[in-house]
Amino acid sequence: MKVNIAAVGLGCPFEIGFDQAASLLDTTAATLNAKGINCINTKVVMHDLDTVKQAAETLKSVDADVLLICIATWSEDHHLLDLLSYIDKPIILRAYPAFDTGSLCCAHQIGAVFTDIGAGYEFVYGEADDDACADKTKTIATAYALKNTMGKVRMGALGGRVKGMTEIAYDEFSIKQKLGARIVNLDEKELTQKVEAISDAEAEKLLEEKKNVLAPCKVLSKHEDMLESMKFYGAMRQLVDEYDLSALSVKCYTTYMGKVCLGYSLLAEEGIVASCEGDVTNALTMKLLYELSEQPINNTDLLYPDEKENTILFAHCGSSGFSIAGGEVELAPVRLAETGVCSRFIPKTGTVTLVDICGHGEQFRMSVMVGEAIPCEMLFPGNPAVVKFEKPVAQICDEIMQYGSGHHWMVAYGDWRKELESFCKIQNMKYYEI
Q: Given CB 3.0 to 4.6 Å as the disulfide criterion, which of 124, 269, 274, 344 pairs with 248?
């Protein structure tokens, strides 16, 4: 996910430090760019209506997720209000330490004004070249970029949810309000009719097209099951293109169990996330995490806490993207049904963020935990991940019950707690760190 910040200066020519305003703006932008985030320096220091209009004209040509207002000195606060009448973007107020410039005073003054008019803002304070300030700015901007990205997501829900899993019943209004995505509800016939329209010869052609991806895999499933799985992949790919979808969820259990799994893995390598059992909310959780980590997401259940080792086993049937495999990939029948094709492998090790989102209305909530995925065996036929935690796993299980977290946990590589917490704050969404 690309994150764009646009930096604008603010100051008053009468105040001490105004002659350093351009330099502060340059240094702040350069420090952010050195962190790998795109900070567009407008080179404008607002101090009157003409410079406000100049900044606005520059910003109109920039696709910024957030505006960084670099406050060099005390300034009349209406300049920023005027800017927002031209450009409606989230604001980060950036103040700098000094006893005589009034930078911090100005930030506090603007914060009071914004609070009274009901406008949101973020705040960062420190030297222009301070790495911690740059990191905080990056985290905030990433959350806003995530909001903007999710607002464009179209999520395909095929066939509703699995019966017996009331927990995963999805609330379209809460999803739109809190996550930004729009649900495209599709009848499962739209999938099955496309599957039926794909011939064996066309399925063979799809297999040939994906041979570079599938060649390293050890195939244990029957060839007819491979062809059927490629038909489901082809059908889902058609739906993705037809409805401009970036996420999918199929009510797979039990009718399509093992039939869509390989397709999910292939779609994951193409940047399309897909969740099991008709769990729409967790498909969108996968999308959130995919945008942050830029890697396929492991769709799991929390299965077994080992109190002695302080680890938890997370696993599901096997539909994750191949690029997070830590070793050989087997294409094998799905457990229980013993048919179809699943992508079975041990995921790679490393720091992981595990997220569950569930609930409705004001109870819509995100639960997050971070641990270390460690080497393990094929403890569960699918994509098992054994995660070691610092917090006692018995306490983790208690807190899951306390917060009413669900049983589906989406696993992404990296520690994304700060970005997710910031996203929840922006979206006025409950956030629980376990």
A: 274
